[in-house]
Amino acid sequence: MSTRTLPLLFINLGGEMLYILDQRLRAQNIPTDKAKKAIVTDWIEEDRRRVMNDIITTMFNKKFLEELFKPQELYSKKALRTVFDRLAHASIMRLNQASMDKLYDLMTMAFKYQVLLCPRPKDLLLVTFNHMDAIKDFVRDTSTILSQVDETFKQLIEMYTPLCGGEFQLIRQTLLIFFQDMHIRVSIFLKDKVQNSNGRFALLTSGPVPYGTHTPGLVRMFSCNGEEVKRIQFRDDGNYSAALREGSFDLFGDRVIKLGTNMYSVSRPVETHMSGTSKNSSQHTKVNTVPNPLAKEELNLLAKLMGGMEVQNPSNSDSGFRVNLFSTDEEEEDALTSRPEELSYEVINIQATKDKKANATLTKIMGEFSEPEEPASCSCSKGDDLLAMMDGL
Predict the structure, then answer these.
(1) 3 state SS of 102
(2) Residues 102, 244 contacting (CB under 8 angstroms)
(3) 3-state SS record for 166-194
(4) pLDDT tens sequence for the chain (393 residues)
(5) Exposure on the CB side of residue 156, measured as CA atoms within 13 A
(6) How many CB atoms lie within 10 A of CB 368?
(7) Angle, vertex CA 164, rays to CA 158 and CA 167, nearest 5
(8) Whole-angstrom Cα distance, residue 123 to residue 308?
């Protein structure tokens, strides 16, 4: 597995999350009792910008990204889901469990589709740049946040543009391994006939070929001296076209490919359909069937040592307004009760403090813990530094 995959995975999933939240915040009517000092439409726009700015500020926090850009293996699915759960609640917006599950489903399936459709592995960087361009557009009126995004953009260019095609292929394979068991049906993909009823994507055998390659249909034969001696035409089953030009890998420029752009920019429903209701369905993601028995105890001890501060209930209406990714509250409740257990995530919140004595005790005790046999199956073994850092942002 590639140790350079995590930043691309995080930024692309984060970009998809911002697309969905922006569309939903524009579409959802805020209760009238929230607008006491301003016109409702003005309050909605002001609040939407605040939510987007808060999430992007947290997402591109300098210390947070320093930890993220360190060479490392991907976090487990549960650990990564926990990161985005905290990121989504970094503002006054609140999502209940069903809406958060649905948001994460949409994010992962959208980026999986983009990875599958990339003409060549290096184009993953162009997909990332499309997301970055859109994020910059969200905060174009806030110079301080825009500078944070630009700094990350430059870091991506510096780190990834020198990589060879083989390294990008390894990154792509790492992403495909991460997504391989996720087959969640999404209404947009189903309506566009790019996803089958079982949740698997249908890839077309037509369209533009990768930049720098020839369209199929010609076999050329060469002599031992390297001279072309014969050509044979054959009939292919697809309708291929040559790529006109390569996308720009600079801070500004035409990316050419459209993968990674906002597919919710036009009025389309944001909804998902689960690929089955059976809890034993093979279509669902299987995560940690034999968990480490000490995992929860270790996390609880960490929470106590790192301050033991009481975490606010995200569903508290006083802490912000709630966003529903379903058409009605009834649909949201039904989705929560019918969701298979293996697709749900229980999050243990840890709030870090600056208590040096507690941190020293924590360091001593953590040295006594043995390494779990299967780190990928336990969300506490990978990403704890990142999650604890998010609590302090």
Answers:
(1) helix
(2) no
(3) HHHHHHHHHHHHHHCCCCCEEHHHHHCCC
(4) 789 999 999 999 999 999 999 988 887 655 544 444 444 444 578 888 999 999 999 999 998 899 899 999 998 888 899 899 989 888 888 888 888 999 999 999 999 999 999 989 999 999 999 999 999 999 999 999 999 999 999 999 999 999 999 999 999 999 999 999 899 998 889 988 899 999 999 888 788 888 888 888 889 999 999 999 999 988 877 788 888 888 999 999 889 999 999 988 765 555 555 554 434 333 444 444 444 444 555 445 444 444 433 333 444 444 455 676 666 666 666 666 666 655 555 444 444 444 455 455 445 544 544 444 444 334 344 566 666 666 666
(5) 30
(6) 6
(7) 95
(8) 45
Six token digits for residue 156: 């991506």
Q: Which residue, among 288, 264, 378, 360, has the nearest Cα to 21 in the 3D structure?
A: 264
**Which residue is associated with the tokens 């990875």?**
115
Give the distance from CA 190 to its chain's centroid. Answer: 20
Supply the DSSP string of 208-246, one letter for each residue.
EPPTT-PPSSEEEEE-TTS-EEEEEE---SS-EE---SP
Residue 378 · residue 372 · CB < 8 Å: yes
Helical segments of 222-321, H only: 295-305
The pTM of the full predicted model, rounded to 2 decimals, is 0.71
| CA-to-CA separations, 209 to 54, 168, 219, in angstroms, rounded | 40, 18, 16
Q: Which two tokens stand for residue 352?
A: 């870090």
Two tokens at 213? 């390659």
List the structure tokens of 365.
């005790």
Cα torsion 356, 362, 368, 370: sign? negative
Residue in the structure block whose two tokens are 């292929």: 169
Question: Encoding tokens for residue 285?
Answer: 């993601």
Q: What is the largest CA-CA distance in the chain?
A: 83
Return the number of other C-beta atoms located less than 10 Å from residue 295's C-beta.
Answer: 17
Q: Using CA atoms in the order 11, 15, 16, 20, what is the torsion angle rounded to 10 degrees?
A: 150
Are 241 and 208 in contact by the 8 Å Cβ rule? The answer is: yes
